[in-house]
Design goal:
The chain is built from 29 helices and 29 strands. The strands form six sheets. Strands 22-23-24-25-26-27-28-29 form an eight-stranded parallel beta barrel, surrounded by six helices. A seven-stranded mixed barrel has the order 14-18-17-16-15-19-20. The protein has a six-stranded antiparallel β-sheet with strand order 8-7-6-5-11-12. The longest helix has 27 residues. Helix 14 runs parallel beside helix 18, helix 15 packs across helix 18 and helix 18 crosses helix 21. It has 796 residues and is α/β, with parallel strands linked by helices. A hairpin with a 6-residue loop joins strand 11 and strand 12.
Length: 796
């Protein structure tokens, strides 16, 4: 890396990997670098440097037509000048040396490595040429010249202007690197953090069949693996999530003609399977972490990495073909949280993967042909099949970007993050559904799913300085149900997750009734067909259920690791379970499901015991196979101490024994939990007050009844006294107790009541955390002031 000024960022980084990390098993293809001195020699021929300077003089990045015209002229001038004879001879000799080591006619990638490229402060990714499957010394020499000329692509010119780089301060260098036969295998990109939220608890691997350009350029919807980073060296299988992408096409070697590669369709069977197995994904994740640790040690600070990988289809070997520091989050102010939320959002027109966390609004402009780019208006929403690297001058004018294809690591995603504009990729049908001139709002503030909504949608925004958040005695935790938002919400100043609602994960990420997964043979034909379609790609519905539930719970736990995450066991009521796919065949019809077969009673009921065992398999897999030992369990709606003992025994039977690093809590939401709190304290490690159910059952009010809504109040004397008895009883028996619900953030007086009683934690919904912290801080200040006044009175 000390040679960046000589060989550019890409070549220097590959040399660094070979020098420092091959001992750690990181495999890098062989090759050589063409230095920036060769580039200088090309530009020093005749009047070429002066000619280029004149072309670049006074160029405005916003004048797209001028950038296109002058860039083309600059590239043509360099190609016309050619390589000086001495450089040409040296290049050919270097390629012959490579042939001597690797075989005659070795195929190579010839890739630009500009001297400012791949630095921690700026990303020049995709701006210059990469030419693949180049063979023979004459072809290599010409490809190197094309790389030099590509320093004047439209995107490169625009980027230098916008970032204040002198056009001649950035010098060309080239990597000539042995090709990995990924055309017969697979390739893709790795980030050592979540590229949207910046959460560094994960490694994101994306990939597709064929050469990696298809993933990088956004030509396909790639497969994704999300790996739990802290579990890589200590857990058997720390994979949080696998997503099968469409992988519509693959780039392979061309057999004939002028082109060195061609794009071909992918067979349906290959589209429906992952391009990597778990072992390969974990090997890549280990290498990625080793690379990040090395670069971080060099820099003296955490340095997330953006890495390209390839798998040789002949040998099966994995390779790292590029590594560079990630730039977007490296420049981010980590002491600030910026959040946005839609207000009264309508149904989306299309959806896809969210890139960034912002919202953009404007008229749609569909671009289907490159010739349409110069007419793109400022402030429009760019809608296209996929973007190309040279589209940056247009993208910077856009209010937002929407593409049919691409994944979270494609060029459209990388560029949009860097430009700070919202982008939704992989919509599949954006160009077909969205019409020119139609005003839309593009939202990337709802987790990993991005949406395009009709018309104007109001947005609520907030910006918080974390170093200004008051320190509290009362712990503030989150209520969460959506794994897709967990990586983003983990940035909030909370002590962990006080309530992860497992039934919401089942409803939204699994959708299948557990008994339908275990007994699909009992379903009618149409339902069985729907189950088979839902579980396509899995060995059976049972494995689908366990894997999807594991993934949802584990993603939340990983996002907050090592902070505790309390996962409430499934608390569906029978009517809600019946709505799941296949559920109607297994659920009873109850007159009053609110106080029917739910919570603890269901786990030990003979008819539903095996469904509970399926839940337990998922939770055990998250803790043991992925390594998420921060997961705690919580039992809801536990009516009696005997029932509590039976559930704890059932958990132990399924490998989730209390103790040995696992805490088991109980919801305190029935009057019986409070009346017998001494017995419950012997069985469980902690309590969490469910104020909605507790209020309902203390007052005998159906919380869903509009007719009785005026009676439903946590301020009622009976409810307050019950909560007070719960807090005092838990503390008397040495158990922590918290409360989950909106009440403390909506009602400052209720917050003061809880704080005065010394409640240990209050769990809030994400949008209530920041205002809730201030309310709790005020309540703690009032409590301290009251305590001081009492002490003064006693002294007098």
């Amino acid at each position: 890396m000390d040679d960046v000024a000589l060989v550019g960022g890409k070549a220097a980084s590959l040399g660094e990997l070979l020098r420092a990390l091959t001992g750690a098993g990181v495999r890098v293809p062989s090759g050589f670098a063409v230095t920036a001195r060769a580039y200088d020699a090309v530009l020093d021929q005749g009047q070429l440097r002066a000619q280029l300077g004149e072309l670049m003089r006074g160029l405005d990045a916003g004048d797209t037509a001028a950038v296109v015209h002058r860039g083309a002229a600059a590239r043509a001038a360099i190609m016309s000048a050619g390589l000086p004879a001495s450089i040409d001879q040296e290049l050919r000799a270097a390629y012959r040396d490579l042939e001597a080591r690797l075989g005659a006619g070795v195929d190579v990638a010839v890739r630009s490595s500009a001297t400012a490229e791949d630095s921690p402060e700026a990303s020049f990714a995709g701006q210059q040429a990469s030419l693949l499957n180049i063979r023979g010394e004459q072809a290599v020499a010409r490809a190197c010249l094309e790389c030099f000329a590509s320093l004047f692509t439209d995107r490169a010119i625009t980027y230098r202007i916008l970032h204040g780089f002198d056009h001649f301060a950035v010098r060309g260098a080239v990597v000539v690197q042995q090709m990995v036969r990924a055309d017969l295998g697979s390739a893709g990109v790795i980030f050592t953090l979540d590229p949207e939220s910046g959460n560094d608890r994960v490694v994101l691997i994306s990939g597709a069949w064929g050469l990696g350009e298809a993933v990088v350029a956004g030509r396909v919807d790639p497969d994704e693996f999300l790996v739990f980073k802290p579990g890589i060296d200590r857990a058997p299988r720390p994979i949080l999530r696998r997503r099968i992408g469409d992988k519509q096409t693959r780039i392979v070697y061309a057999r004939t003609g002028a082109h060195t590669t061609r794009t071909v369709p992918v067979a349906v069977a290959d589209r429906q399977r992952l391009c990597l197995d778990d072992a390969d994904a974990l090997q890549l994740a280990r290498w990625a972490v080793a690379i990040e640790e090395h670069y971080s040690a060099r820099a003296g600070r955490r340095t997330p990495m953006d890495i390209e990988w390839a798998r040789d289809g002949r040998s099966g070997q994995l390779y790292i073909v590029q590594a560079r520091p990630e730039t977007v989050h490296a420049r981010r102010d980590m002491t600030t949280i910026e959040r946005c939320a839609l207000v009264d959002a309508p149904e989306p027109l299309v959806s896809g993967l969210a890139i960034g966390q912002g919202v953009g609004e404007g008229p749609v402009r569909v671009i289907e042909d490159l010739e349409e780019l110069p007419s793109f208006p400022e402030g429009a929403v760019l809608v296209t099949d996929m973007t190309e690297p040279d589209w940056v001058p247009v993208m910077r004018k856009a209010a937002a970007v929407v593409t049919n294809r691409g994944g979270r690591t494609c060029h459209a995603a990388i560029v949009s993050r860097e430009l700070g504009i919202p982008c939704v990729v992989g919509t599949g049908q954006g160009t077909a559904v969205l019409g020119d001139g139609e005003r839309v709002t593009v939202s990337c503030c709802e987790g990993t799913i991005g949406t395009v909504l009709p018309g104007h949608v109001d947005v609520r925004r907030e910006r918080v300085q974390l170093d200004e958040v008051p320190a509290l005695r009362t712990g503030v935790m989150l209520i969460l149900a959506d794994p897709d938002r967990a990586l983003t919400h983990a940035a909030l100043p909370v002590q962990g997750v006080g309530l992860a609602r497992q039934e919401f994960i089942v409803a939204n990420h699994v959708s299948l009734h557990p008994l339908a997964a275990l007994h699909p043979e009992q379903l009618d034909a149409p339902t069985r067909a729907a189950v088979d379609a839902l579980c396509r790609g899995y060995a059976n519905p049972e494995e689908y259920f366990v894997d999807r539930l594991t993934s949802g719970v584990a993603t939340i736990a990983a996002a907050f690791y090592p902070r505790p995450v309390i996962v409430r066991l499934g608390d569906f009521k029978s009517n809600e379970y019946a709505r799941l796919l296949g559920g109607a065949a297994f659920e009873p019809a109850e007159e009053n499901p609110m106080i029917g077969l739910r919570g603890a009673s269901r786990y030990v009921h003979p008819q539903f015991r095996e469904a509970f065992a399926l839940e337990c398999r998922a939770l055990r897999r998250a803790r043991e196979e992925i390594g998420l030992d921060n997961i705690r369990l919580m039992v809801p709606f536990c009516r009696t101490a005997d029932e509590g003992r039976a559930v704890v025994a059932a958990l132990a039977e399924h490998g989730l024994a209390r103790g040995d690093g696992l805490e088991i809590w109980v919801m305190c939401e029935l009057p019986s939990n409070v009346a017998a709190i001494d017995e419950f304290a012997e069985i469980f490690d902690g309590f969490s007050i469910g104020s909605n159910d507790l209020t309902q059952l203390v007052l005998g009010v159906d919380r869903g009844s509009a007719l009785l809504a005026h009676l439903f109040s946590e301020r009622d004397t009976a409810v307050r006294r019950t909560i007070e008895a719960a807090i005092r009883g838990a503390h008397a028996h040495g158990r922590p107790i918290g409360l989950c619900g909106q009440g403390p953030s909506d009602d400052p007086e209720f917050a003061r009541f809880l704080v005065a009683l010394g409640i240990d934690t209050i769990s809030l919904n994400p949008d209530a955390v920041l205002p809730g912290i201030q309310i709790i801080a005020d309540a703690e200040a009032a409590r301290a002031s009251a305590g001081d006044a009492a002490a003064d009175q006693e002294g007098r």
